[in-house]
């Protein structure tokens, strides 16, 4: 795989393709339901919206907002890069409000299995990701 820029459409597609092919992740789609929209502002492509949608026995990751959207996470480019590269812990970003949560935060907490299943996918794509 060639390199992709973080949060570009190619990066979103790389994550989405792997998510669609991941049996563990897709199995979770039959037990959970949540729509999460991520909004990252002030980046190389201005503002980027992408989603994680868990519903109807499937998990999808793609460009644009979740529908329905249960949770919205908003952050600036610098925060997104710092969390993605491990320079900042996601927990610290939430505590300091560098990542702002809108909607049903409890649903986010109840969906930890989804995030655990996504971690190896993000790790795999990180090896070909540039953060500029």
Short structural description:
The chain is α/β, with parallel strands linked by helices and 132 residues long. The chain contains six helices and seven strands. The strands form two sheets. A five-stranded mixed β-sheet has the order 4-3-2-5-6. The protein has a two-stranded parallel ribbon with strand order 1-7.
Structure description:
By secondary structure, this protein is α/β, with parallel strands linked by helices. It is 40% helix and 30% strand. The chain has six helices and seven strands; from the N terminus they run βααββββααβααβ. The strands form two sheets. The protein has a five-stranded mixed beta sheet with strand order 4-3-2-5-6. A hairpin with a 2-residue loop joins strand 3 (46-55) and strand 4 (58-63). Helix 1 (9-21) crosses helix 6. The chain is globular. The two termini are 18 Å apart. The mean pLDDT is 95.
Low-confidence stretches: none
Query: What sort of overall outline do the alpha carbons produce when their principal axes are compared?
Result: globular
C-alpha Rg (nearest Å): 14 Å
Note the gap between the termini.
18 Å
Major sheet: arrangement of strands:
4-3-2-5-6
How many runs of DSSP E, i.e. beta strands? 7
Which series of helices and strands comes N to C? EHHEEEEHHEHHE
What's the average pLDDT? 95
């Amino acid at each position: 795989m060639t390199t992709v820029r973080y949060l570009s459409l190619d990066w979103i597609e790389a994550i989405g393709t792997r998510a669609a092919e991941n049996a563990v992740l897709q199995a979770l789609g039959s037990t959970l339901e949540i729509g999460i929209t991520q909004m990252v502002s002030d980046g190389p492509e201005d503002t980027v919206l992408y989603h994680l949608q868990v519903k109807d026995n499937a998990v999808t990751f793609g460009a644009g907002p979740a529908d329905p959207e249960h949770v919205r996470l908003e952050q600036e480019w610098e925060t997104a890069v710092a969390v993605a590269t491990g320079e900042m812990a996601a927990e610290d970003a939430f505590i300091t409000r560098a990542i702002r949560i809108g909607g049903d935060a409890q649903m986010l907490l109840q969906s930890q299995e989804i995030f655990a299943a996504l971690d190896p996918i993000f790790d795999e794509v990180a090896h070909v990701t540039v953060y500029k």
